[in-house]
Amino acid sequence: MHSRSTSIFSTAIFFLFLLIISCTGTQQTAVEAEDIVANYTEEYHTTAPIPVLPRYEPVMSDRFDNGRMWTFEYPPIDYFKETYDFEPDEQWFSHARISSVRLPNCSGSFVSSAGLVLTNHHCAREQITQVSREGEDLLDNGFYAPTFSDERYIDDYYVDQLIDVRDVTSMVMNVVDAAPQEERTAVREAVLRELEEDLSSTLENPDTDLVEVISLYNGGRYSAYIYRRYSDVRLVMAPELQIGYYGGDDDNFTYPRYNLDMTFFRVYDGEEPLSTPVYFPFSETGVEAGDAVFMIGNPGNTSRLQTVTQLAYRSLYSDLFQHHLYSRAIKGLEAYYEFDPQEGDEWDLRNFIFSLKNAEKFFGGQVQALRDPVLMGRRTDNENRFRSQLAEDSELSDAYKPLLDRLDAIQHEKINYSRGYHIFLGVAPNLNFSSSVMQRAFMSYIYATYLDEGIPAELLGSFKEQIIGIENRPEEFDRYMLAQRFELIRDIYGDSDPLVRNIMNRKSAEELADDIITGTVFRRAESTSDFLESDDLLNSGDPAIEILKIIAPEVLNSQERYSELLDEEEEIMGELGRAWFAIYGTEIPPDATFSLRISDGVVSGYDYNGTIAPVYTTFYGLYDRAHSHHSDPQWALPERWQEPSATLDLSTPVNFVSTNDIIGGNSGSPVVNISLEVVGLAFDSNIEGMGSSDFILDDRAARAVSVDSRGMIQSLIHVYNAERLVEEILNR
What we know:
Elements: H1 5-20, E1 69-71, H2 77-84, H3 90-99, E2 100-102, E3 107-110, E4 116-119, H4 125-131, H5 138-141, E5 143-144, E6 152-153, E7 159-167, H6 169-177, H7 184-200, E8 209-216, E9 221-230, E10 233-238, H8 241-244, H9 248-251, E11 263-269, E12 272-273, E13 292-297, H10 308-316, H11 318-339, H12 341-346, H13 349-370, H14 373-391, H15 394-422, H16 436-452, H17 461-468, H18 475-493, H19 498-504, H20 509-519, H21 525-532, H22 543-584, E14 597-602, E15 606-608, E16 611-613, E17 616-618, H23 619-628, H24 639-642, E18 653-658, E19 670-672, E20 678-685, H25 687-690, E21 704-708, H26 709-718, H27 723-729
Antiparallel strand pairs: 1-14, 2-3, 3-4, 4-11, 5-10, 6-10, 7-9, 8-9, 10-11, 11-12, 13-14, 13-19, 15-16, 17-18, 18-21, 19-20, 20-21
């Protein structure tokens, strides 16, 4: 009987990898014939003793350690009244929901009655590049459409508006609970698909509306979200990259900031702007310290219901390895961009590198936060309370305590397979994350193994086409990315590991990459195609195949077992979600799912670096930052900003911080006051909150960073002369 290792690699790893990075391509790879699998029975590679995962002394947990990302179907009305002396009604929540939109990778909002959408500049970089015409560089130089006819259509782009929410919990659970335990994962996936199809068939506007069934509380509840999709979206205004990403990577995830991270789109209905009578108007007065503010957007994914053991495993293995992965990919891509910036621009590598640097910082900060004894102590206390309340109910305890014990055991099992699982993430067809040489060689190794096991070549046709379909890349690109992949293996295994010594054979990563590039047939699609027609592929002597003989068995063994453990872990988390909901109900919000949430907070500075971070920064600070770094291009100002207009009020706030709960996906979220006026545009977390935001809300010094509405208005008037746009957002 053949194992599932290769099928799993080409599907599960690839889609997992796409999940953990933003702004990548959408190429997909899969072995279409499910029975085409290989049987790898070699003993997986282990050399070091398995370490014990750390334990933490409890530290008093906070009421909102699980966050304040509230859903619209379970709004915390009593909590808002208790905390802010403010009791929003159903109309308030409806207005907030209808005014908000979800972009493919970010959040946004309607800010006028004529379909005007506000989001972040960093959410729109690819679209700004896309609409640039020959001889233009709108990403670097900015764009403003003085008339409707100048607004530029964006191909293959859309915004989604949440128009309805329906509770479908019983429809899901009735079917799942009736299934045998071992079949529940498959049954759950099937019933969710069927529900989406059934609900979609009842929609009044099936051409524009779509249904997503959302799991809340890790399966404790289910809701059907009905979206209206608008596919005619046009660019209205975008500042220069240098001011929209001011301070570059060094300032990213920091505060104080001086960043005009804003962009305006417009949604059209036919040839006319979409009528949007419900929207968020701009506030001209902004905010002051202590003001209540509400961030409304689509936070990506959080893990606040994970156990302490799950988090401890991540701190030593998966999150650390992903940080290594991003770091190595960035080094290779930056080296190639420096070598050939023209080709790099054609591939839009700068935007891709920007997104990877975000992820690199996020995972680096997350590893640090996951090792913080205070944060992990709070999570320990939180979990102890949960376990105590479970123990008070014998029925709940009997049902769920064994699941918690098994979940802990899975983390220790994953250690055995974690290194082999992670070293080949991103080695999938046509991803910029790895060299085409390694992509072709790895898939060819699998193909050759199929043949050796007696699978007829005619059954491998689609798999072979995937290999041949891998695009040719410049030699230097392959060289840089191949060297960095070997460095990644060294990062994860360590120089003294026998596997690394066998691969490297006392050579540097660059020397090994040179040897392979010089001697392999996998440099080009054409020679790869010829190679696949030859006999005895595994004994061809090709240097890439020889390396894969050392690596691939462990990768495939690790992938098979690790994926099985992940599937079991996901199923257990779904069951435990019911326990969480049984004990806490809607008193705590569910983990984020890139669906619409409302996060409350207050405008507040914090202690940092031995001093106090101000509530907001001003244009005075922007110019001080530029002049203080006068020789560094990262802090240079765009030409139109270098000499400020005499009419620009330099005391105007440009960015501010608040205690709102924020994570990736929230970028572009409107920050509104109690009157539902835009006072800010969320674009970042500070470094103090960046790492912890996935698994705990730590508002001691963690803050959301937003562009101030006053800074946006001043810039549009006095720098960009965008009079038409200003009149529209201020409803003049």
